[in-house]
TrEMBL record:
The keyword Transit peptide does not apply. It catalyses: oxaloacetate + acetyl-CoA + H2O = citrate + CoA + H(+). The keyword Ubl conjugation does not apply. Pathway: Carbohydrate metabolism; tricarboxylic acid cycle; isocitrate from oxaloacetate: step 1/2. GO terms for cellular component: cytoplasm. Keywords: Acyltransferase, Transferase, Tricarboxylic acid cycle. One of its GO terms (biological process) is tricarboxylic acid cycle. InterPro entries: Citrate_synth-like_lrg_a-sub, Citrate_synth-like_sm_a-sub, Citrate_synthase, Citrate_synthase_AS, Citrate_synthase_bac-typ, Citrate_synthase_sf, Citrate_synthase_typ-I. CDD domains: EcCS_like. Pfam families: Citrate_synt (PF00285). The lineage of its organism: Bacteria, Bacillati, Actinomycetota, Actinomycetes, Propionibacteriales. This is Citrate synthase. Belongs to the citrate synthase family. GO terms for molecular function: citrate synthase activity.
Length: 402
């Protein structure tokens, strides 16, 4: 309702760019995206190769340090992370005070904030401290995440098991109980490795930009990452995977035909969208969705707790959308969230935990971006401008005259 050109004239050289849709805020050597071609690379390595051949810890090292680790470097990194998986007993006790059924995302954020308080010896900007804080976060965030889940279901927490891999240990802490050991399934472990790798970084998305903006004030790594967790919590960002599953459940429960559903989302007056479709940057198939789709089939078919019916609906929706001129003309393809929720549910996670799993995956990206920014001599505090649309100057009015 206001005249943009008039407002622009007031601001001189300031660029008016709501949502930073057209603004690059930094130079970065971490992640490359070509949205038209559907390409995603970490440090130059295609996501397809990393998903097939790497592990989450190895990819984290790559994202953090810029190169694939040698055998010794990976062993050293793995050991440093493993050594820090236990959290201080007082932080563990803290989980008992949150209400039962608290959403695990704010609990995760509180846990990361508390971790900063308990890690004062690693707070600072010299390389050793930054590395120590990096190891602690990589080690302890999955522990805090598993505890946030246990808290949400009112179950006691388990201590980490050093004999297991990073992903195995997280699955065990989430699903194991004191009296019943968790039986690891190779296919589930591999799928979780892949899902975490696919989420490891995605350049200047909302939560990563938040980590950079908070860190640009020279706020320490823990508090910057905790802010990233809060940004990810929002349904327009990390929460979309949950919305896809709710949509599939709704279609299944109400017995709506896929054709009718697609017609409904095309009708703007319905105000509904095909969740898990479309992306600000990708105008082609999201390369992460293509990889996840393959794993969804392996995990969901012929498995207790799997859900073939919802997968069938998802596949039918995709087929119907991709052959429909509405989606073709607007270049709307499945994004990363379209198939992830189906796999998470088949693994046994409730919808509330989906965004927490995203956070564990995105952690190396947040840390790497903070490290890159802190060491960049060109770094400045983030401080956007605005276009003022309020009152012009006026005199104070006494209380009895208002
Ligand atoms: N279903 C139906 N129509 C859609 C969809 C969709 N999922 N996505 C976009 N459109 C239509 C819009 O109505 C618009 O049509 P119009 O040109 O006739 O007005 C056109 O496609 C362009 O859409 P915009 O909203 O302008 O695109 P934008 O880049 O701003 O939004 C977004 C991208 C938010 C991802 C959008 O596609 C969407 O809402 N998708 C569904 C939610 C979702 O899956 N989010 C997860 C994103 S991935 C992530 O964050 C991890």
């Amino acid at each position: 309702g206001y005249d943009i050109s008039k407002l622009m004239a007031q601001t001189g050289d300031t660029t008016f760019d709501i949502g930073f849709a057209n603004t690059a805020v930094c130079k970065s050597a971490i992640t490359y995206i070509d949205g038209d071609a559907g390409v995603l690379q970490y440090r130059g390595y295609p996501i397809e190769q990393l998903a097939e051949k790497s592990t989450f810890l190895e990819t984290s090292y790559l994202v953090l340090y810029g190169e694939l680790p040698t055998k010794e470097q990976l062993e050293d990194f793995t050991e440093k992370v493993a050594n820090h998986m236990v959290i201080d007993e007082r932080i563990r006790e803290m989980f008992r005070i949150f209400p039962r059924r608290s959403h695990p995302m704010p609990v995760l954020s509180a846990g990361v904030t508390a971790l900063g308080l308990f890690s004062q010896d690693t707070i600072g900007f010299d390389d050793d401290r930054i590395d120590a804080a990096t190891h602690r976060l990589m080690a302890k965030v999955p522990t805090i995440a598993a505890y946030s889940y246990k808290n949400s279901i009112g179950m006691p927490t388990l201590y980490p098991d050093y004999s297991l891999s990073y992903v195995e240990n997280f699955l065990r802490m989430s699903f194991g109980t004191v009296s019943q050991p968790y039986e690891l399934d190779d296919e589930v472990v591999k799928a979780m490795e892949v899902l975490l790798i696919l989420h490891a970084d995605h350049e200047q998305n909302c939560s990563t930009s938040t980590v950079r903006l908070v860190g640009s004030a020279q706020t320490n790594l823990y508090q910057s990452v905790s802010s990233g967790v809060n940004a990810l919590y929002g349904p327009l960002h990390g929460g979309a995977n949950q919305a896809v599953l709710e949509m599939l459940d709704d279609i299944a429960d109400r017995g709506i035909s896929v054709k009718d559903y697609v017609n409904k989302v095309k009708d703007k007056s319905s105000n509904e969208r095909l969740m898990g479709f479309g992306h600000r940057v990708y105008k082609n198939y999201d390369p992460r969705a293509a990889i996840i789709k393959k794993h969804a089939d392996a995990i969901l078919r012929n498995r207790a707790g799997g859900n073939d019916r919802l997968l069938d609906i998802a596949l039918e929706l995709e087929e119907a959308a991709l052959s429909d001129p509405y989606f073709v003309e607007r270049k709307l393809y499945p994004n990363v969230d379209f198939y992830t929720g189906l796999i998470y549910r088949a693994m046994g996670f409730p919808t509330d935990m989906f965004t927490v799993l995203f956070a564990i995956g995105r952690l190396p990206g947040w840390i790497a971006q903070w490290r890159e920014m802190i060491k960049d001599p060109a770094n400045k505090i983030g401080r956007p401008r605005q276009i003022y649309i309020g009152h012009t100057e006026r005199d104070y009015v006494a209380m009895d005259a208002r």
